[in-house]
Structure formats: C-alpha cells, structure tokens
Design a protein that fits this description.
alpha+beta; Aminopeptidase; 2 domains; three-stranded antiparallel β-sheet
C-alpha cells in the first residue's frame, strides 16, 4: 500500500473517489468537493489549500482523507480561536495547521474513507499515520479531524488524538404520517405556537415552492445566491460560495439538492437550501430580501420537517448553533472532533480544556433537554 498527497480532488476520477463512500452523504461526494475547488471556495487564496491524502494498492485507490492546509480557522465550526490566540501570546505560530474536514460544512460523517468494511481499520490506520507524519515533516502546529462519525472517533482516540465534544440540534422522524401528526406529539402550548407562526405566513400571502437541484433554473439560483449573500452582509461576514458553485452542485447532485423558495404576491422574497441523503435532510443556507415575521422558521424548520415526513427521511440536521430550534422539536445531540497538538505543553493545556469543556457541554445539553416541546420524552 502506498500513500501520497494531491492538490486537487480532480486528480482522482469521480467514480473512484465515490467507491470509497459507505453512504450517500452528499458533502463527501466528489462532485461537492470538486465544486468547492472549481469556484475558489476551497483554494489557497481562501485559506483552504487542498492536501488530500490518497492510499493505493497495486495501482488501485483504496483509501482517502479530505485534507486542507489552513492559515485561519474560518469555515470550520469547531472553534479553536482561543487556542490560536494562546499560541500568539506565547510567540508560537499556530498557523498553518492541517484539517480533515468538509469546508464550510458542520455535518458529521466519515473522514477516513475506505469503502471496505473488512479492511477499514488497516487502511484507515495508514491514512492516520501518513497525515500525522505530514504534519510533523512540515512543522505544523496541529492536525484536526472535524465532525467525525463514531467509527472514526474510536480509531482516532486509539491513536491518542484528543477527543472534543460539540452540540447541535437535530429533528428525528418518529414515524409521523403528516405535519399535524408531528404537532400532535407536542405539548399544547408549543403546538399552538407553531400553528400561530404558520398561520401568520399564510396571512401574509406567502407561497412556498420546493424544488430539487435538477429543477432549479439559472434565474432561481441567482435569486438564492442574492439571499445567501444578504445573510452574510447582515452579519458583516464574507460569503465564500458563488452562484456558479450552487448551480454546479444543483446540476451534479440533482435530487440530493433541495431549494425552498418563498414568494409574496408572486415575487420571490426568501429561500433556503438543503442537501439530503437517503435518510437525512441537511439544512445549509437561508436568506431573505424582505423582513417577514416567522419566515425563517417556516423555511428552515417547518418546511424541512414537512419534507422529511413526506419523503420518509428519518432525520433533519439544521446546522450549527440555535437554541431556538429546541422549542420546535430539535433535540440536542453530541458532535465529535479529534485533535493532535504538536507542542507538548500546549497539548497538556488543551487536553485539560477539552475535558472541562465536555462537562460543560453535557450540562448544557441536559438543560436543553428540559425544554423539549414533546408531551412525553421521546428518548
């Protein structure tokens, strides 16, 4: 088995890369990662320099790890700014660092891609070792595996990477037959609140259209990008994804892309973008060119829940943060990352930090569970 690094995912044919995927998570698909590179979102100028790690055996691809050299911590959603600031105060460079992640995407999934259940541990171990050696050989401060699944977490912990907890809010489909069936599972107070919010949308003459990627026109993608840009502008943030990027993933991923557009009096006013697998809907971006009461909740949460019920999906992941999701049926769940820190003293300090942080996150999640709107604890 041989390992080597590539500067672009296009150096590997799409069908070969996709054979390494054990599920249909759209963010790991070659098409999604390639579109990030094609349109400058994942490039050296944007601080996401591709260093994908590839493993081959007898000339055939058998493993991969999506890797990026980073000279900042934007677009990761596992926040280590405090670590970088501590390094700076000590006069030690924190950047560049090496990150195994999907750029701008706080969605959990496999990072050690092998496509082979029987030999997963063997191939994954070679990938872990090669990435570790690269970080050492290039004098990098650290190596971070972000939003990893349970299988990767177990293996990375065995290799003495520091485990770190995070929290998101996910909605689970408990065999609901309709949106009203979901509402029936809530307490009367929360059920009344959601119905009120949805009635307010109807009262304001809002019409909702749900489209899949292969149904979205160039004009509709341009409108979505305008909404997306507006959201970032309101927060004085940089919007890294172009309209061309969204058009490309819409064309390449087709039915795995879901765009919701809201119109008022036949004029588009807001939109929200989701991607999906066979069992999960992933909320990604939303924006509005007009302030309308409760429209964010309708597009990002209620339309998402309705879509999951109508299409038999088991889960909705609505992205990072957002305590307001709890009262709308989204439960707190743990997310995981794993970290290698080169500097021995900082490694000890950060290890203590993540242990205390874990306790705080567990207490926070316990508190959030007390505010779930269900009539009975759904488990």
């Amino acid at each position: 088995m041989e390992t080597f690094f590539i500067d672009s995912i296009d150096d590997i044919p799409a069908y070969e890369w996709n054979t390494l995927l054990r599920d249909d998570n759209p963010f790991l698909d070659h098409a999604f990662l390639a579109a990030l590179e094609h349109h400058g979102a994942a490039c050296q100028a944007n601080g996401w320099q591709a260093r994908h790690l590839i493993a081959t055996e007898k000339g055939h691809l058998c493993g991969a790890l999506p890797l990026y050299l980073k000279d900042h911590s934007f677009g990761e959603f596992v926040f280590d700014w405090a670590w970088a600031n501590a390094y700076a105060r000590a006069g030690i460079p924190y950047y560049p660092k090496l990150v195994a992640a999907i750029p701008y995407t706080p969605v959990s999934g496999a990072r050690l891609l092998t496509g082979n259940t029987e030999r997963h541990q063997d191939i994954a171990t070679r990938l872990i070792t090669a990435a570790h050696n690269y970080a050492i050989d290039h004098d990098l401060s650290s190596l971070h595996y972000l939003f990893i699944n349970s299988q990767d977490r177990q293996l990375l912990t065995q290799h003495h990477l520091l485990p770190r907890y995070g929290c998101q809010f996910h909605w689970f489909n408990r065999s609901y037959t309709s949106f009203d069936d979901f509402l029936a599972a809530l307490s009367a107070r929360h059920r009344k609140k959601i119905r009120h919010e949805r009635h307010r949308i109807e009262d304001q003459n809002i019409a909702i259209e749900v489209l899949h990627g292969d149904e979205v026109s160039t004009k509709q993608w341009a409108f979505f990008h305008q909404c997306y840009q507006t959201t970032f502008d309101k927060k004085a943030n940089y919007a890294p994804l172009s309209a061309a990027f969204f058009r490309e993933i819409g064309h390449a991923l087709g039915r795995r892309v879901v765009l919701v557009i809201a119109s008022q009096n036949n004029t588009a006013v807001a939109s929200a973008l989701f991607l999906r697998s066979h069992d999960t809907l992933f909320g990604r971006y939303w924006g509005s060119i007009k302030d309308i009461d409760h429209l964010h909740f309708e597009l990002c949460y209620y339309q998402a829940i309705a879509y999951c019920i109508d299409h038999g999906l088991q889960r909705c992941e609505a992205g990072a943060q957002g305590e307001h999701k709890v009262s709308r049926g989204f439960a707190p769940i743990i997310t995981h990352s794993a970290h290698w820190i080169a500097h021995p003293q900082f490694r000890d300090i950060i290890s203590q930090f993540v242990r205390h942080e874990k306790q705080g996150i567990e207490e926070y999640m316990s508190e959030m569970r007390q505010h779930l709107p269900y009539r009975k604890d759904p488990g």
